[in-house]
Design goal:
459 residues, 82% helix, mainly alpha, single chain, 16 helices
Length: 459
């Protein structure tokens, strides 16, 4: 580990006196990060609506294309998990010098990872689309959507990691403001590029992301230079130092199991998409899944991912401050909040599922299949919240292997087995397997968090 003088980081006067998230600060961070992810979710929902207006094929293409984009983002998510766990731990211990060194290395790695991920994504997309069962026409439309999305990965990765750095230091407001600005720009550009006079179709979604993420990256760097994290932005010092093997191992040691966890969820989507391609009315069922899953991402996954990040920061900082009881209590409080919110969402999907399906789906056939999706999965939403939030809490404790194992078992092994045992090439088989395994994942995470083996994890 290289040495950095404290003067290179910032002055002691610029460090807030109270940097530990506790008490009422937990709720403040939770609502800020939830709002942050809801802003992203709004953009996600509008993308689905735009795709629905462009036809069933475009809707299916955006659905599977967004999963591939997420797959290529895996290195970024691994780096983000490692950054949050490490920086929050050092920040909670008031070791600001090391915390800023972690941030500096994370930003450098984000540039390298994003360039590699973008290049791999552009070259691999056509092959991946065929492997998951997309027809030739569908694959062509999906690649149109993905081209600019892959290029936008470079600024978006740097933006994502810089947001992780702010969050790990207890500053959830800066990422929130940046995300709201980027979301507003993204939505305006998507409507203009896709449905407006530009007439770019779903290509316009990727182009909008490229412009808005570049803007967000610039905003974050400007804010970081005037914050206690200013040492992270010293480009010349970062380049002279180069990539540290020591910190790279630390990031990946924590982040790779979290990456595998995300990959397993993504792999389950590919399995479902492939299974639906073998059903009658394959494109209709694929479009229904794309619309239904996008609603779940918007109303369930994205807001709970905000609480996932809040739990990670709260646990990491309190463990750094040698307050394990407060870390455990904070995680339970965030989990209870998430389960309560998702219970309301579940009721909404139960009673308003047909209306939501009508809004999201452009044809009657897709609408009917999407209604079936909601009527099967609505009750599982609190369990998804519990699974996702406690996964974040364990990531904050650098205890990432157990949530990885739970997710792989539930969403890959058990879900695939249920689909095979169903022996029925109908979409209802897929919906039933999703419902059972989501509930199982939530229950297993409660058991493992209660055992508190995460408390002994080392960074």
């Amino acid at each position: 580990m290289s040495s950095i003088t404290f003067e290179e980081v910032s002055s002691t006067e610029s460090i807030p006196a109270n940097t530990l998230i506790e008490g009422s600060g937990i709720w403040q961070v939770c609502w800020q990060l939830m709002t942050n992810m809801l802003a992203l979710a709004l953009s996600n929902l509008i993308e689905g609506w735009i795709a629905g207006r462009l036809g069933a094929q475009a809707q299916a293409a955006v659905g599977i294309g967004s999963q591939i984009w997420f797959f290529i983002m895996m290195l970024t998510l691994a780096l983000s998990a490692g950054t949050t766990a490490l920086l929050s731990r050092f920040w909670g211990a008031r070791d600001f010098t090391t915390a800023v060194e972690v941030g500096r290395q994370a930003l450098l790695c984000s540039v390298l990872f994003s360039i590699v991920s973008s290049a791999v994504g552009l070259s691999a997309c056509p092959t991946v689309l065929k492997l998951v069962g997309a027809s030739n026409d569908l694959a062509k439309v999906a690649f149109d959507y993905l081209q600019f999305c892959m290029i936008s990965m470079v600024p978006y990765t740097v933006l994502w990691i810089s947001n992780s750095i702010f969050r790990a230091s207890g500053d959830a407001q800066t990422p929130l403001v940046t995300t709201i600005i980027c979301t507003a720009v993204t939505i305006a550009l998507e409507l203009t590029f896709c449905l407006g006079p530009a007439g770019l179709g779903i290509k316009g979604i990727g182009l909008a992301w490229l412009v808005s993420s570049t803007l967000g990256m610039i905003i974050n760097f400007s804010k970081m230079r005037n914050s206690p994290l200013s040492g992270c932005c010293k480009i010349q010092a970062t380049l002279q130092q180069g990539v540290s093997v020591y910190w790279m191992k630390k990031f990946m040691g924590i982040g790779l199991p979290a990456c595998v966890q995300d990959l397993s969820l993504l792999a389950s989507s590919f399995v479902l998409f492939f299974f639906l391609s073998r059903t009658c009315d394959a494109v209709i069922n694929q479009a229904a899944w794309a619309a239904g899953w996008r609603v779940e991402e918007t109303l369930v996954i994205m807001p709970m991912y905000g609480l996932n990040m809040a739990a990670a920061t709260i646990v990491g900082q309190n463990l750094g401050a040698k307050q394990p009881e407060r870390a455990a209590d904070g995680a339970w409080r965030v989990t209870a909040l998430g389960a309560a919110i998702n219970s309301v969402v579940a009721a909404t999907l139960y009673f308003a599922g047909p209306t939501i399906a009508q809004l999201m789906c452009g044809t009657f056939a897709v609408r009917g299949a999407c209604e079936s999706y909601f009527s099967t999965l609505w009750w599982t939403e609190p369990f998804l919240a519990i699974w996702l939030i406690l996964s974040g809490a364990m990531q904050g404790a650098a205890y990432t292997r157990m949530p990885m194992c739970v997710t792989v078992f539930c969403f890959n092994i058990a879900r695939s087995a249920l689909i095979i045992l169903g022996a029925n090439a109908e979409s209802q088989t897929a919906w039933n397997s999703m419902a059972f395994t989501s509930a199982l994942a939530g229950i297993m995470m409660i058991v493992h968090w209660h055992r508190r083996q995460w408390q002994s994890a080392k960074i």
